[in-house]
Amino acid sequence: MNTESNTRLLVDTLTARRDDFLAQWARTVGEDLRGRLSMAELGRELGELYEALLRALSAGSLDSHGEEFGETRSLLIELSRNRARQGFTPTDTARSVFALKEVLEPSLTGDADSIRAYLQFSRLLDDLGLLTSEAYLRTREEIISSQAEQLLELSTPVVKLWDGVVGVPLVGTLDSARTQVVMEKLLQTLVDTDSTHAIIDITGVPTVDTQVAQHLLKTVVAARMMGARCTISGIRPQIAQTIVALGIEFGDIPTNASLSDALRQALKEVALDAEDDVRGLL
């Protein structure tokens, strides 16, 4: 029995018992998903997928990668993306496809021709099930990447401490990716608030090594290019000892033991700048 005969048998069987197969398929998948998806939504998804499969088989193809299955692949990718966003597992998602094999098995294992058609259709569904897993994993990676970016944004706040003074309280490790976010947020805040002083507080940074120091210096240089004076605060005794032991040089960048000391110094400079501006107007 050739491929054409197999597809004809599959189309005839799927068409003749469409409602029965769809009902069984939805019921089986619904049990796997344990009621976490409404039967109405599940019935709609599986109904669209069932019709797409029928159209592809009616074209005489059993190649999941063929043009005839383009619509089927699109529907499965969308289904997988929805499942990933809804918190289902890859197994839950793939089972939505594999369950159709269980539904069809009793009707396509009666004679040799039916068995051959069923085996070919099973291989087709296996390929489509793998497609759902790949689409699911890609979506989960996108979600995780997006969440990581959001957490990075939240972990690097830039706050206005006073008129003309902004602060960057750093907590945790400072790496290249985070340094870039700090730079962008600091520079934008300097522009938005028309500030001339920036305090980078490292009280919450557990250790300062050569790499962390380089990231701090890059941030300071970027802020200075915007015309802001920068101070690094939060230099605890153990941090100071580490910096000296490593031979790290902050050059002419002012440092303070605490944020309050740095803020006090910045406010003095802001006041002096204001006095100079007034004198310049007289």
From TrEMBL:
Q: Record's CDD domains?
A: STAS_RsbR_RsbS_like
Where is the STAS domain positioned along the sequence? 155-266
Its domain of life reads Bacteria
Q: What InterPro entries does the entry give?
A: Bact_StressResp_Reg, RsbRD_N_dom, STAS_dom, STAS_dom_sf
SUPFAM superfamilies, per database record: SpoIIaa-like
Keywords recorded for this protein, A-Z = Phosphoprotein
* Protein's UniProt name: STAS domain-containing protein
The protein's organism comes out as Streptomyces heliomycini
